[in-house]
Design goal:
Structural class: mainly alpha
Largest sheet: none
Number of helices: 9
Number of domains: 1
Shape: globular
Strand content: under 5%
Distance between the termini: 23 Å
Number of strands: 0
Helix content: 55-70%
């Protein structure tokens, strides 16, 4: 994808890398929330709020950023680098999760934004919300990888796989969620539920 070997190498990532890197940080921020005096009954609520925040972020990024193509060469190139390469090579296992060179700055920016936006709620709440956001992000990376590489035999797994494959293989301008269909249901972007789309499977 890149002519510079170093940049090409950084554009690829082992699917376990986000989990290995981010999981200790999430446990650390969860401890900070508890140590900061946040009530045990409130922590799950704040974490769930963070998960929901990730889910709408996932939807918005996928629908309005990753699939935005302009008429310029730079715009088409940006689309390809951000997301187009995944649609051209959907089973490339080294490009199915977000590279750490992207997720680390993004995670830092999100935390700083939360510190500003939720400042009145206090640092402990912010830390718990950030944990939820991180859990949502890791769920996204894990589910996305699984839908392209695993058979997903459970009812939920097979439904999520079919849900994502419709986005990839039917040409429908729909199904922008990956880890959850929540916002597709809310905004009416599930697309047509036909026999054709219902039987789409990944090869």
């Amino acid at each position: 994808m890149f002519e510079t070997p170093l940049i090409e190498a950084f554009s690829r990532v082992h699917p376990a890398a986000p989990f290995v890197f981010w999981t200790p940080f999430l446990f650390y921020f969860l401890y900070r929330a508890y140590d900061g005096g946040l009530a045990l009954a409130v922590i799950p609520v704040a974490v769930l709020a963070g998960v929901l925040l990730w889910s709408i972020t996932e939807y918005v990024l996928h629908r309005f950023v990753f699939h935005r193509i302009t008429g310029t060469f730079a715009g088409r190139r940006l689309y390809f680098v951000l997301h187009g390469v995944h649609h051209d090579y959907p089973t490339d296992g080294s490009r199915l999760v977000m590279p750490l060179g992207v997720s680390i700055p993004m995670g830092t920016a999100v935390y700083l934004l939360l510190r500003v936006a939720l400042a009145p709620l206090g640092g402990a709440v912010i830390d718990a919300v950030f944990v939820g956001f991180g859990i949502g992000y890791l769920a996204y990376d894990g589910i996305h990888y699984a839908t392209h590489h695993f058979r997903m035999k459970s009812k939920l797994g097979s439904w999520l796989k079919r849900y994502h494959m419709v986005h990839h293989h039917t040409g429908e301008n729909a199904r922008w969620g990956v880890s959850s269909p929540l916002w597709d249901w809310v905004f009416g972007t599930m697309g047509e539920t036909t026999q054709k789309t219902a039987t789409v499977v990944d090869r």
